Amino acid sequence: MEAALFLKRIKQEAEQASFSVRIYEEGTVISVGDGIVRVAGLGEAKLYELIDFENGDSGIVFDLYRDSIGIVLTSGKGDLKSGSRAFKTERIASVNAGEGLLGRVVDAVGRPLDGGPLPGGLIPYPVERTAPALIQRDFVRASLYTGIKIIDSMFPIGRGQRELLIGDPSTGKTSIAIDAIINQKNSGVIAVYAVIGQKKSRVLKTIEDIKRHGDMSKTVIVVADASDSFGLQYLAPYSATAIAEYFLDRGKDALIVYDDLTKHSEAYRSLSLLLRRPPGREAFPGDIFFIHSRLLERAAKLHESYGGGSITALPIVETQQGRISSYIPTNLISITDGQIYLDAGLFNNGMRPAIDVGRSVSRIGGKAQVQAMRAVSERLKIDYSRFLELEVFTKFGTHLEEETARLIRRGKSLREMLKQPPLHPFSVVDIVLSILAAQSGLLDSVETIDVEEVCAETTEKIKQALPDIIEVINNTGKISERELDSIKACLDSQGLPK
């Protein structure tokens, strides 16, 4: 306290004497290990303030004690020793954000990883920021289409929503997220992809997929892979959100993917244990819920009076053996606006994407769909769920009535229609026409292996036969009863494509 008063007195004297003075508050490193540094002598340090060391390393204040502070290194040469000097910077941890980051791959503190130069014209954005207040938010109405039939028809995602992707390892969670990013190629949405704790080889493949199939000029990738320090892995999603907030503040729509928050939780647990914070359930610290809630609450749709921008969040979390009741998954389920649940059994049976319709939900619902999509998919989830229930009885060899057998045939063709390969998102028109083709019964007698091909041929024929209606759907997202009847008549008249 006396030191603070002394520094304040010096600054006041300097102002009165009309000359500038620059004061460095200096501390001493007590201990270094596992990316954690203890420093004494920086009594005025703030939480999340940047600290520089005499050897060129830097870190962020994570713990404040009576006689020392705990710092997490964000960059290090490996030669920092006890007794080295540490300096306050008076700067809170931030990442440079701006248009210049579009098309770039950066680390958790904004340093380029793609071999290119540091972009110019960037603005520092704090990695920790208060979420928009309720008065600043608006209702989620506009659609954010993923290009995935089963999601866009049954579990629509709105701009400003938080939809959790949850499932066991290797069930296709990242594939869904990448498809969603690729599908923004022809939309006005900026995509930010935060990679946390993934293998470097997997990261490189993902980047290559986005470059080949999507629009990299509208994408920013923030990487903290498995070889990076726990500090960078912890910081990555916050830095990615800060970059997305740059576009939010300018009235633009952004999509952010966190891949994944399970590894983020584990990185934070490791940091907390190294900082000797009290462990709780499964050794996680008591604020593990708070680190994710304050992150995901920053995703929002702003009111037009505040710019009208939005951030849509697709966090990913892993389960083990399908246990969605474990600690981190339940935390994230309670924070988000819905979840897309991927089932290992469905995946092993060849369902792609392996989405469990019974356990998945979007709390925004049809409000985030254009009228044309809503018109054709209103009863889709109910009909599909009914088919899944009826299908169970066929395993017992029960004699089926004709009506039940017809419903099962229709359900099987619907299931095949909903399948799609990765990196192949569909347009709204294609999804609408595919659903109508399945509902018309046109695909009921088609062999399972041929459903995808027949469905594609059918949609192309409708596009060629009714170009005016297709143009209306593309331009307005609406379809009238008369236009719907025209499409159904076209389906009835052509019969099975040859």
Question: How would you describe what is shown here?
Answer:
By secondary structure, the chain is an alpha/beta fold. Helix content is 38%, strand content 18%. The strands form three sheets. Strands 8-12-11-13-14-10-15-16 form an eight-stranded mixed β-sheet, sandwiched between helices. A six-stranded antiparallel beta barrel has the order 1-2-5-4-3-6. Helix 13 (428-439) crosses helix 14. The longest helix is centred in the middle third of the chain and has 19 residues, at 230-248. It is elongated, with a radius of gyration of 27 Å. The mean pLDDT is 90.
In short:
This protein has about 500 residues and is α/β, with parallel strands linked by helices. It has 16 helices and 16 strands.
